[in-house]
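Help! Submission page says 'invalid entity' but I think these are all valid:
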Amino acid sequence: MTGRERHGTGARLRRMLAYAVLILFALVFLYPFVIQTATAFKTEPDAAAHPLSPIPDPVTTEAFAQVFGGTGFPLWVVNSLAVTLLITAGRVFLDSLAGYALARLPFRGRGAITAMVLAVMAVPGVVLLIPKFLVLNQLGLYDTYTALVLPLIVDAAGVFIMRQFFLSVPPSLEEAARMDGAGVFRTYWSVILPMARPALITLTILSFQSSWNEFPHTVVAVQDPALYTLPRGIANLVAGSLGAGTQYPLKLAAALLATIPVAIIFIVFQRYFVRGAAEGASKE
Amino acid sequence: MGRGGVRRPEAVAGWLFVAPMVAVLGVFLLLPIGMALWVSLTGWNGQGSPFQPGVPFVGARNYTQLFLQEGLTRDHFMISIRNNLYYVAAAVPAQTVLALGLALVVDRRWLRGRTFFRSAYYFPSVTSSVAISVVFLFLFANSGAVNALLAYLGIDGPQWFADPRGLIHLALGGLGLADPDAPPAALADHGLFGLSWWEWLAGPSVAMTTIIMLVVWTTAGTFMLIFLAALQDVPPQLREAALVDGANAWQRLRHVTLPMLRPALFLVVTLGLIGTWQVFDQIYVMSQGAPANTTLTPAYLSYRTAFGDFEYGTGAAISFVLFLIIVASTLLQRWLMRERDGSAPRRRWWQRMRRTS
Amino acid sequence: MLAAALVLALPACGEGFGGGPVPQQTGPAALRVLISSSGEAETRAVTAAAQQWAAAEGHTVTVIPAQDIAQQLGQALAGSDPPDVFYVDAARFADYAAVGALEPYAERLPAAGDFYPALRQAFTYQNRFYCAPKDFATLALQVNGRLWARAGLGAADVPRDWAGLRTAASRVKAVGIVPLVLDSSFDRVGAFMLQAGGWPVSDDGTRATADSPQNRQALEYVQGLLRDGLARYPQQVDTGWAGEAFGRGMTAMTIEGNWIRGALAADYPGLAYTVHELPAGPAGPGTLSFTTCWGISARSRFKAQAVGFVEAMTTADAQLAFARAYGVMPSLVSARQAYLREFPADEPFLAGADYARGPVNAPHMDRVMSDFDSQLARLAVADPAVMLRRLQRNITAALER
């Protein structure tokens, strides 16, 4: 390295190298999805014989027919949609409510509760698998829809993101509203929330994505196949047949369909995802 | 609400606003931890309630048998710890370095298509861990894409998910330093916690390597975004000043950019540590601990012990030990990466090394 | 504070759950039946039989095929809401019996004495016969006719004892064919232990007997076959299981159970092979049986109706129908002749019923045996005595729990 990167060919060469590296990694990160999509449209012998090929030969939708006809897939989709919508709605409302109170409303015990939120954020989720099962079982909620939704309807990280957001908003606006005689909830609902739109969109997207993909919680919350969500259903479709070259088009088709909603939201709301990751970073 | 002064209604509203959150977090996070702590002190076998009379109280036995009592429980627990240690040791540096490297390249101002590259690298992170695990099962199947790719290069790929051989064992065998089938007695006959040194030194198995690759692949994008956000905060004047000083690219990275990225680096390593000690979904979907327990992790073992073997006390004890491990490893990391002034002996040692090399 | 109050108040409301006898309901029942199906054919056959019984008796039955029955059942039992009837694999039976999850109804069945003794033993825990064996399979020796002939061997050369197995295998190896492919698990190697007169636990299931000289002799014999290239594990010939290696014509012999018939017919139609009883060892003949029982939950509200259901599922006629649908053998001695008339080629499998043994019948064995399986994968290079000492230690620890 000479340090003279502003000069001609050396710099151009280095840029080409950088592009080459970037493109190579883009392939590494995206080609598996290409293979997944292609394989979902392949026949089983074709999938086994040409695992790398991006072009199915012949093209068949047999795997999708099987996914819808031969598995619990339609039911899983319905369950996933219901659970995801309930959790997302709950989180957006309750997280912002609590975040606002922690940022703005002076009440006794606020410091303690803020500390609790931070402590809860620090508890690793996987450690809670057996504990969650115990409490759901004890409350008689095990193996119900409620068990799938209720424990996830508030998340500490979301509360914290909203708290940080409200702290950054100047208090003058709500003071004006309060002068007009509006109650606390009125002020929150009609003045504060509309202002918080970008943060709420970020929260909505993060909640949707995480509850749509949620897996470990469903493992300890339910066991009745009628209550399976997509990740749980797909996991059961796959687990136990490791390494066997069987039914890959079917499994990949199911996984592909489960990925599509998040992919669409990702493409449409990219910048909010990026912001979400940055918000997550400011947690510490 | 309304007229009775400003503070009182606000205080009431404050409580009302946080009440749902307190209830949910209290009932589904704090309370269960207490319940699990109790279960970890009992021999509850999963029949009926763990709080009914007649459930045997065993004190700390569930914990001591993980460390002190010879037997399969300890063997499996120690194997899971070993597996996860290698998993952490491989995945955390790999995902951090990859994320940092990608961020540094994507951050170039002259770069075209930055949004595309950034999104491409980040996309795997937003998809479902279960769906991605299915894709990797296919990629690394015996007749899958990776082995097909290796075949193009003239390499006969391994049976990824069926291969329990540890990478360090393989390397030692390959170099002719030790025979995996007849390990040196010094290592095979002595050990710690019931596992011989030879077993401790196995390295991640070939099967575990696939899961390491998977997790590096799915997390690098998120961490890249964290680095990118931090890079935006590096004042351009600083870089330009360094440029004027005639510092070369490596020197600028080492002395200007990296120090500025220290908080982001700290965050990424912390998140990486916490995440990698918790690996569960991928194990559940891809391997269930097989082959030969080489992908068994404490998180999965705790689950399997409770729900598969009906030993809820042991399972709960494992998850509390795992919790302590996570806390301890983040504390250790905090200590290792703490801000040190220039006179700290360790730093000088590093600098000396740098100068002489 | 609110949180503290909630936390303190909640455990109290859970106190109503848990033990105590479950009140029984008479009359029409809604039974839930959890099965771990071997495939579409079994699910269909069991569902059809269940619906037929339900319609005739005025009950309703829901048959639920499990993806992972151990996990689903474990959580259901802990959740105090298990299905009324469920398949119990013999290898896990003692686990369920030991925690009191099973109703010991089988000893009161009129047909209790008609089940094969080996199967009764497989579902007996602390001298109580808990649940009715659904059906069973045994191990036998399969011989590929074409490869056998290519090695110059005839029907008379089919091995009848350990020495004969070595001789025949050597002659097959001499013409460059893999003589025997054998799965690397206790579920195969255990048969050699029986043939040598050994077994990992005592007959009453209370003591570990893994480190006996008989067991060692068995492991050393199998080790000899592996070391001399007379036997291979499926992984060594790049196959997923022995049946695949046999079906693809990669080996002259294999040792598998009844299920191999269906698998070969489906995947390798036209393969010419014969089935024989396993070669006898120094202590005589020995084979392993694999079986499942109809477990009835100790917490079911419909125990009487569930017993009625199981009786209907285990009659000779019902079992013969299942045998036709998915290739298992009836668990009743009285169904033996009828079965042989329909499936004469299964004689060697059925003959094994007289000297077969089920899986190691004691609680907490699942982990122990899977640990032993991973040891067996290295049998060719490991020391059998060390392996058996480890097994002895683990079984002893598990039995002491």
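Support: the input was valid. A stray whitespace character was the problem, and the output above is from the cleaned input. Residues 1-5, 240-245 of chain A have pLDDT under 50 and may be disordered.
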